[in-house]
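[Automated response] Your request has been received and processed.

Submitted sequence:
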Amino acid sequence: MIGADGSVTGPDVTPAPDPEDPVAFDDTIPETQFPRPGAWTCVARGVAEGRDDNLDSVMFGTPWSAPVAFDVLSDFQRGGARIVHRRARKPRFGIAAEWPAETAGGEVRLTLFRACTHKKVAAGAAHFGTDKARIRVKRPKRRGFYAGVLSFGGTHFLRESTDPSALLLFASRRKIGFVSPFSFPQC
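Generated structure:
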């Protein structure tokens, strides 16, 4: 929100000074410095230290610049996952996102690969609702370890990307479930 004096309310993201040159500022702010993806607005103003009539130290500032609006984008990252009906022929994976509001309406695809062989064995897709996506995937027939890879189709604020953390799974003849990274085979 833009104040009457031209300032902007909300989280403060300020470029850090160059440690080599304390007078110079970098004119860019990395995407990682923003607390979340979304529509952002920024303003700037010059500030200088000086002395008032009583010789006290004071900060003098120029008027705020015109507001500049821009979008901060991010990659998709899973916030959590759950398996419902683990014994069903097509169990349902409930996938939550790190940024639920920004993923709403985006398509996510879950692909299961057999561990070590990297052979694709099953896949399913769904769209994110307001809180999560529910993907049905055929349970693998063969007993063994599987890696579930989530690919996100993208939305306005989240780029098309793949979740950096695979779902580590173990399937038996009757059910499928998550497995610890320590139990997963190192191929």
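Summary generated for your ticket: The chain has two domains: 1-72, 78-178. The chain has one helix and 13 strands.
If you did not submit this request, please reply to this message.
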